[in-house]
Design goal:
Layout lengths: L3 H8 L6 E6 L2 H14 L3 H7 E5 L5 H8 L9 E6 L8 H12 L5 E8 L8 H9 L1 E4 L5 H14 L3 E2 L1 H11 L3 H13 L6 E2 L1 H8 L7 H9 L3 H13 L6 H20 L6 H5 L6 H10 L2 H18 L10 H13 L1
Parallel strand pairs: 1-4, 1-5, 2-3, 3-4, 6-7
Helix pairs in contact: 1-2, 4-5, 5-6, 7-8, 7-9, 8-10, 11-12, 11-13, 12-17, 13-15, 13-16, 16-17
Amino acid sequence: MNINPILSDIKNRSFKPVYLLQGEESYFIDTIADALEATVLNDAQKGFDQSIFYGKDIDMSTVVNAAKRYPMLSDYQVIIIKEAQELKWKSDTEELLTKYLEHLTPTTILVFCFKHGKFDKRKKIYKVFEKKGLVVDAAKLYDDKVGPWIGAYVKDTGWRIHPQATMMIADYLGNDLSKVSNELDKLMLNVPKSQEISMEDVERNIGISKDYNVFELNTALAKRNALKAYQIVDYFVANPKNNPLVMVIGQIATYFTKILKYHYLIDKSVAAKELGVHPFFLKEYELAARNYNRRKTFDVLNVLKETDLKSKGVNVPSNFNSEEILKEMIYRILN
């Protein structure tokens, strides 16, 4: 999702009287709430006209009574309820809030941070939220969208990053955007703004090996470079905490799913957009498609499905360990 228009409105002091920030991706919720907390009031006003509550510590009547008050030193008062999913969302308490929302205090900005799940859209109060304020659905990014998100994040801050470094971070850190953004912020503190962030910078500052990661394993498999593939696997076996088997299987499966999709593209000129990858990587996908025809790609995906089951203890001898499962998977992909 793109929250930049919302952040732009906040920066331009165009506020909504009520925000329902809800969904699985806490990063988007926190970013919007933090922007409101930082922008609406200055430091002197915050002591009088800003309240931060936590859902588990308050009830709805406290929220509503606070919202009905008028500001003391500024044009607005700001009330932010963090962990709002911990509030008691029952019919009587929701009715109390609904009555307030239908007759809003115009000088109050009320923010609900409803995390780790979606607010029930079937509830009457959800429709009132939509009508009277702004509802944000903070959905988790799919894995193939993390790379472009990283690129945009870095660009918005004025830095540049090499596509390979972007994909290495995405493959290693996954789609936890709070974790990714924290690592990117630390990375940018240590790389001059005039310099493009490289794989070497990522290795030095985030601790991801530029030579031994799933990103490089996928490249080795695409090239059918068995020696490099087994070198990386040996590294994974020696560092299991950083390279859990389930994560490795999942990322290879994502990679070969894109190879299969590439096979079925009629217009290869739009391959980068359709696959959700940087154009820099298209030659690699073209090579992978030559090395793995459609039938072989289907076979690889079946191998990955079987390996995923084995990693969970299904159809595997009791004495079979993660190293053997991983090496068998690589052998079957390459042969």
